[in-house]
Input
Amino acid sequence: MKTIKLKINGIETEAEDRTPILTIANRLGIKIPTLCNHPIIEPYGVCRVCTVEVRSGKRVRMVTACNYPAVNGIEVFTDSERVRRDRKLIIELLMSRCGHVPVIEQLAAEYGITEPQFGRGDDDCILCGLCVRVCQDVIGAKVLGFFSRGTTREVSTAYGETSEKCIACGACAYVCPTGAIQIENDEAMVQKELPLGPLTPVSIPFMQAVPHQPVIDRDSCAHFKTGGCKVCEMVCEPKAIDHKQQDRIEEIEVGSVILSTGFKSFDAHKMPQFGYGNYQNVLTGLEFEKMNSASGRTGGKITLADGSEPKSVALIHCVGSRDEHFNRYCSRVCCMYALKFAHLIKEKTNAEVYSFYIDMRCFGKGYEEFYDRLLEEGVRFIRGKAALVTDFPLDDTEVGKLVVRAEDTLLGQVRRVPVDMVVLCTGLEPADGVQEVAHLFHISRSPDGFFLEKHPKLAPVSTATDGVFIAGACQGPKDIPDTVAQASGAAAQVLSMMGRGEIEVEAATCYVEEERCAGCRVCNTLCPMDAISFNEEKKKTSINDVLCKGCGTCAAACPSSAIVPRHFTDIQMLAEIEGALYDVRSTL
Amino acid sequence: MTFEPKIIGILCNWCSYTGADLAGTARIKSAPNVRVVRVMCSGRVDPTFVLKAFALGADGVLVAGCHPGDCHYIEGNYKTIRRGALLRRVLADYGIEPGRYRQEWVSASEGDRWAEVVNSMTEEVRKLGPFRLAPGDAKADEQPGAKATRAA
Output
């Protein structure tokens, strides 16, 4: 590509031939106002605000900077007397159509327009066509277009009706310079549909995500709907985005595995008495946590579904835990996170907080002290599990409120507490698919469904399978400090296996006494480890010592007792049975 | 004095043996009649062991392993199920009541189930009375002499 020389406002610069003047000026930091230009969309030169003066020899021309290709030797003036005069006129003409748009009014102020000479129009669309171009060329949904001609020209959908092809990507509203297009966002609806979901199609899942990198949500990304867009790919300078990437299954050979498959939050829908899913202001702990997060939908503000601040909040403990109908166990973390919520509500709002608990279980270091602090902060603790959340008022104080009904076991009476918001402190459950994982690794699960450790005290991170360790909430509900401690323990176990450089194979394996083997091959199909092979030449079976785990299934099947499981030989077994019946043996 | 049956329990190392252990550490009370022999897998249980136990005078034999699908060695307990079906026919031929031989699945976390299995089997065998191998003599139970020999 040819390089050319040109001057902008007296500054000499070089650029590729036919680069738009606006691009070169932006590079130099020279600001040229524009309304209809957007870096991802082909320039169109329709708003004319970017008009500049171009001198080429004796010839002087007024051109739009966004789409005028620079050629060698030209001289550009972006803020000359003539440019300012022309721009002022252009802005006044725009105002005759759109007289009350903030962006244009700001421009007008810059160019000293107090009262535009052609009056002020009431429209807010300058017909720049950015929305049409983004919809047609970038997203590819092809919903928006220009309709009619002359003074009645307008941007619209076909026949002005809601289009089925619109994927609600919001690109038109995003690029619109005047704010003429607005996305109608039903906040309450969004909250209901995607309480924890990503805010945008491209996002970092959560603040502490590892790796801390953005991901694309296939369900909401416009590219996966229309095949167009790819704006992120265009603007990403290191070219890190690849929309063609597919999920891959990789096989990695490892010596040991740490299972840390985590937990699933209890589904609050299962307890309809709390109205989760029916009342918008009944949230689960996780949803409330997301609301509290600075990266959440409300930016960390505690709000009701209508956007206002709650005046009273109820926290209901033990939702799905310590309950005979669901999980009998205590989920351990809920009391403490409920206390944290209470503290945050007190800190961020003036709301009254009611905490309905069965027992306060503040088991960790510093936890009881935190509870004491909250008692002083004025959180109202009501001992008794909530029975019902309803919006049916019994008197004037309950109108428009959610009423929590519970037995206060310290007072010995049933109370009705009207509140604005209810947070259900849902318990922890084994993650989906634990059954499959347990089968895959040949480990067991305890009756509550969590993975079973080899020994509760002596081998709390090991499992019945050598080289498979467990850490975190997949072993049972636990909080972050405990999880980190257990994970460190599991990592240390793995490291000690690695450090040794060699592993101990099972000593109690089976072997074949060749002289007794008749070559009948009964055992050949039995071995689940594929340790048994048949020597066609010798017509004898042999067992691979390393593969054999010593279960002895083959030995039990051998009709000639040729297979001997070490430490569990037939002679030993029979002697053991004989020994176990020492007191009756003599009678036969 | 009530008859206390003597039952041989052959338990797999990974599930039932651990489960029985758990029953102990959890202080779950159960009948003391089962005498436990550990094997690595219920698939190791050669039917000969069961017959030998009866031959030696056991009143019942309990083979316990992992639940089907949970075997530490993937499928050892399926082999036990298959052999058990054949073994029961052999036991019937010997005139051994079906209640004297049981196959049960107790996982490592089912201490309470272990106690349940032990208690119910003990009860069942107690009802069946003492076991003797009396080939060809279907009326052995009615002969007072036989019981006297046993008691001695």
